[in-house]
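Supplementary Methods S3. Input chains for the assembly prediction are listed below.
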Amino acid sequence: MSNDAISARGDLRLTRITKSYGDFTAVDDLTLTIPKGSFFALLGPSGCGKTTTLRMVAGLEEPTVGSIHLGDTDITTTRPYQRPINTVFQNYALFPHLSIFENIAFGLRRRGIKDVKEQVDKVLNLVELPHLAERKPTQLSGGQQQRIALARAIVNRPALLLLDEPLGALDLKLRRQMQIELKWIQREVGLTFVHVTHDQEEAMTMADTIAVMNEGRIEQMGSPADLYDDPETAFVANFLGQSNLIKGKIEGTDGDNLVIDLFGQKISMPKKRSHAVDSSMYAGIRPEKFRISLVGTPTRGNTLTGGHIEDVSYIGVSTQYVVAMPWGQELMVFEQNDDGVAPFDKGDEVVISWEPTFTFGLRGDEDVGAGTEVNPEEPTEE
Amino acid sequence: MSHKVKDATIPTIPTKARISRWFGRNMLRIYMIFGFTYLFIPVAYTFIFSFNDSGKSNLIWKGFTLSNWQNPCGAPEVCNALGNSIKIGVLATTFATILGTMIAFAIGRYQFKGRSSSNLLIFLPMATPEIVLGASLLSLFLVFKINPGFWPTVIAHVMFCTSFVVVTVKARIASLDPRLEQAAMDLYANELETFRRVTLPLVAPGIAGAALLAFSLSFDDFIITNFNSGTLITFPKFVYVSAARGIPAQANVIGSSMFFLALAIVIAGQLVNRKKAR
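Predicted structure tokens for the full assembly:
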């Protein structure tokens, strides 16, 4: 094949990609552009097709339908070793028979690069492990192996770096630390990073742009803040953080606002934050956006009355309340413990209020449970 | 390994209980000693009698001598037989290892029509009684008007060694993480380089083990060899034939040497592994 693929640079474009295995469709008509230089995350539960997408970009799988471009070069059927793309594998896949130095030098040697020693030393310094050059991979801890796997990939200065659940095998503390380091390294080397993960917190911490995937499709794409503040589907609302979704009916408009009936109580929200297609809708509010007040105290914004505190969980920085509403739904409310104590007790009659601009609207035919039954800690697809 | 309980600090334990505790603690060790004694008595016997100043028959201890070791080819034909066995062994091992490794990769790595039946058929030579294999190979050679001798023996040995190579190498390939090869491809190694730099080095210990197994199977094969070698004398045939009139002590020398050689290879392998792991 061509040698021009190896020197291709630019945005990564996936155009109408479908990947089927027999009857099973892993990736379903996916179109996606990843801008050069960005830190992009593909986020989704196990089996959502994110790893398959990554493997197609790496060249380890070929799409059934569709094309993949890097800049202006079509790399859909290019062999993995002819793509300027490197991968940090889920379990690192360090070569056990080679020293750390030779592991990192592997890609440079295959391309006939001259100053191997210099470049390997430089990248070992970048990941702060220069003293391990002569060791074997099995003699390293998980965190060290992770960094070597990263070094082995970035030493090649690829147009695109793929990270397949790179932190999945690390413990929580180390994972946090590596999240910050990865982000720093990405800025330092200025490469395009495409990160696949099932961990929403990890994606939000690191990525500029997140594409949330579910059942082989992209549910929504945007910055972490956009996705969190204005989710377009119940899946995104539930998979990224927690949401209260209340069944409602759009009654009319009032300027730039919609007037909505929630079980007989009127609230309002900005028109542009509603993704409902007809009058039937769900009003979504994040638990920390709610305020709780005792019946009789003044409130601002939207209010819902008739609730009582069902459960109180004090967790230090905040208190989580479960508030039972008259229509049988239990709402989740997080309150900051500014005063050091949880001010409400179980059984208190309360009013819930929030700023109308924090409301997001979902289609009325959504499955409100979507994205909640997924256990984000479960091991991911291979 | 063993952690000693300080009996002195517990002064009053009845003798009976103490004995039963001692047995409980050392049961495995005692069992092991018996097991290894059983396994190694024949080897020890062979080794000791290689120093016997025996003359013609090496059945009764007649006194210590180093002359057998100094002159291992002293008995008529013994080194000729050994030479034949080594030649056959090396050739059979080479062919069987190459052929078997390729079959192992084909079965272990690729999906093709008839893969599972090949997988099953490869076990057949191992399961078939040697006497049947030997006899049928001989009649096959005779049908094709090939006289028994050196090359028919090599062909026969390649046939039964290949199965063992396939099984050994296949196990190694199965334990190889396919992601390592994917990582190599990802790092600009084409198919050939990936095989040479990653796959082969990682499967090599399995191939080496298979080759050793093939050689030892070929070297001491008697039944199949006896059918197909005609007048050619191999080491096992030599020992068998001389058994009737007394095996010369040189046979013990060669047998012991082979044992120590095998032991040395195993120990060397362990040391290399330990060094690699460090």
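Chain B has two domains: 7-70, 78-247. The mean pLDDT of chain B is 88.
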